[in-house]
TrEMBL record:
<feature type="transmembrane region" description="Helical">
    <location>
        <begin position="208"/>
        <end position="229"/>
    </location>
</feature>
<dbReference type="GO" id="GO:0055088">
    <property type="term" value="P:lipid homeostasis"/>
</dbReference>
<protein>
    <submittedName>
        <fullName>TLC domain-containing protein 4-like</fullName>
    </submittedName>
</protein>
<dbReference type="Pfam" id="PF03798">
    <property type="entry name" value="TRAM_LAG1_CLN8"/>
</dbReference>
<feature type="transmembrane region" description="Helical">
    <location>
        <begin position="174"/>
        <end position="196"/>
    </location>
</feature>
<feature type="transmembrane region" description="Helical">
    <location>
        <begin position="53"/>
        <end position="72"/>
    </location>
</feature>
<feature type="transmembrane region" description="Helical">
    <location>
        <begin position="92"/>
        <end position="110"/>
    </location>
</feature>
<feature type="transmembrane region" description="Helical">
    <location>
        <begin position="12"/>
        <end position="32"/>
    </location>
</feature>
<keyword id="KW-1133">Transmembrane helix</keyword>
<keyword id="KW-0812">Transmembrane</keyword>
<keyword id="KW-0472">Membrane</keyword>
<dbReference type="GO" id="GO:0005783">
    <property type="term" value="C:endoplasmic reticulum"/>
</dbReference>
<feature type="domain" description="TLC">
    <location>
        <begin position="44"/>
        <end position="246"/>
    </location>
</feature>
<dbReference type="InterPro" id="IPR006634">
    <property type="entry name" value="TLC-dom"/>
</dbReference>
<dbReference type="GO" id="GO:0016020">
    <property type="term" value="C:membrane"/>
</dbReference>
<dbReference type="InterPro" id="IPR050846">
    <property type="entry name" value="TLCD"/>
</dbReference>
Length: 263
């Protein structure tokens, strides 16, 4: 077996096993230590809690590793279409192991955390990652897409605050909500125009033609699916953020009015 294939399989398996271990064992122990409110959660809430702990850990690992690759991996930068980077393969293998683990958990606990959009997202991502891992193409592009995961810790933290019944207008909740909206916009929405501009710039080039019709269609179609979902989520997040800001303003107005009456 080729060394690169061995590296991919071993990394995917290790990643899958690690996230399964995290979900079933480590998360409970860790969460009980750092959050006194964890033990009082219902079974259903704990399942989603463990799932989001795994999501946060995965996002931090592949997101930060992806940033390092983006700036320092010369192999990927030198040829975005055909640069076969070992570092990118490791990062995408970690992500693939997590996605397979999370798909299994979603199916096993479908009544609790099942979500058709996550199934579509995970399957589309795995399908795209297959071409990077199997054919060694689009390494730079694959790693670039992984940077979108940097928004997930803020999304998950919002859910943790809600599960622990933090007041919506608490300082921690408001700050996290604003950061979530800003970071989500920066890493998932801002890159859309330059990304598709790059696709347009390489259409018809020799390097693009060498990819073959299947990889060309798969690359573009999976990115479109993922970006449509990103836009949908961005709209939902923005509406929620604007609603909270509006409610905060109303509360401040009421408070000022009451203070004025007291004066």
């Amino acid at each position: 077996m080729d060394t690169n294939i061995k590296l991919v399989f071993s990394t995917v398996f290790t990643s899958f096993f690690t996230f399964q271990l995290l979900f079933y064992f480590i998360s409970s122990w860790f969460s009980a230590k750092v959050s006194p409110g964890f033990n009082s959660l219902s079974f259903e809430k704990k399942i989603e809690w463990h799932s989001r702990i795994g999501s946060t850990c995965h996002s931090l690992v592949v997101g930060l590793f992806g940033l390092y690759i983006l700036f320092f991996d010369e192999v990927a930068k030198a040829d975005p279409l055909w640069g076969d980077s070992s570092l990118v393969k490791v990062n995408i293998s970690i992500a693939s192991g997590y996605l397979i683990s999370d798909l299994l958990i979603l199916i096993l606990y479908w009544k609790v955390i099942g979500d058709k959009y996550f199934i579509i997202h995970h399957c589309a991502a795995l399908y795209a990652y297959y071409f990077v891992l199997r054919h060694g193409v689009l390494s730079y592009v694959g790693n670039f897409r992984l940077l979108a995961e940097l928004s997930s810790p803020f999304v998950n933290q919002r859910w943790f605050f809600e599960a622990l019944k933090y007041p919506k207008f608490s300082k921690a909740n408001v700050i996290n909500g604003i950061l979530m909206t800003v970071v989500f916009f920066i890493v998932r929405i801002v890159p859309i125009p330059p990304f598709y501009s790059y696709i347009y710039s390489v259409l018809g080039t020799e390097a693009y033609i060498r990819l073959g019709f299947l990889i060309q269609c798969s690359w573009i179609s999976t990115c479109i699916v993922l970006d449509v979902m990103n836009v949908m989520w961005m709209i939902k997040i923005t509406k929620g953020c604007l609603k909270v800001i509006s409610l905060i303003r109303q509360e401040k107005a009421k408070s000022s009015l009451q203070n004025g009456k007291l004066d």
